């Protein structure tokens, strides 16, 4: 059975859960929450990021999340609630599902991604 990208994103969001930008804005700076930016480095460099967000590009996420990998980012195993975002919400949904499949339970994808964040006037770190 062939799956389309939109179907995969919808299934991922259903499996991991989502939160809207307004809810996410209330979580910036909390000690028990880590925003994870899964966009490419070029996007991050030109647009900035949510303050305090960890950059973990989608293409390397599995290696960053795996404690046995030399590329492991310990922040992903911190036990904090991980809120993933990308440009518009698709990549972050798939990434959040991947982390959940890898045993990291407390993950969510931010609906609308960084584009929605900017439109809502969320703070941006350059």
Which helices and strands occur, and which strands form pairs?
Blueprint: H1 5-16, E1 18-19, H2 21-25, E2 33-37, H3 41-47, E3 54-55, H4 61-65, E4 81-85, H5 90-101, E5 107-110, H6 113-119
Parallel strand pairs: 1-5, 2-3, 2-4, 4-5
Helix pairs in contact: 1-5
Radius of gyration: 14 Å
- The rough form would be described as globular
Poorly predicted tracts of residues = none
- How would you characterize the largest beta sheet? 5 strands, parallel
Please tell me about this protein's structure.
With about 130 residues, the chain is α/β, with parallel strands linked by helices. Helix content is about 40%, strand content about 15%. Strands 1-5-4-2-3 form a 5-stranded parallel beta sheet. The chain is globular, with a radius of gyration of 14 Å.
Would you summarize the structure shown here?
With 126 residues, the protein is an alpha/beta fold.
Question: Key terms for this structure?
Answer:
126 residues; 14% strand; Oxidized Rhodanese, domain 1; alpha/beta
């Amino acid at each position: 059975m062939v799956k389309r990208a939109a179907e995969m994103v919808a299934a991922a969001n259903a499996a991991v859960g989502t939160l809207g930008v307004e809810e996410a804005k209330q979580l910036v700076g909390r000690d028990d929450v880590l925003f994870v930016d899964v966009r490419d480095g070029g996007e991050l460099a030109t647009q900035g990021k949510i303050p305090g967000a960890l950059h973990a590009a989608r293409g390397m996420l599995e290696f960053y999340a795996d404690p046995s990998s030399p590329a492991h980012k310990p922040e992903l195993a911190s036990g904090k609630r991980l809120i993933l975002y990308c440009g518009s919400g698709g990549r972050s949904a798939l990434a959040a599902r991947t982390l959940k499949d890898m045993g990291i339970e407390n993950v969510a994808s931010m609906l609308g991604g960084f584009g929605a964040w900017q439109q809502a006037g969320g703070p941006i770190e350059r």
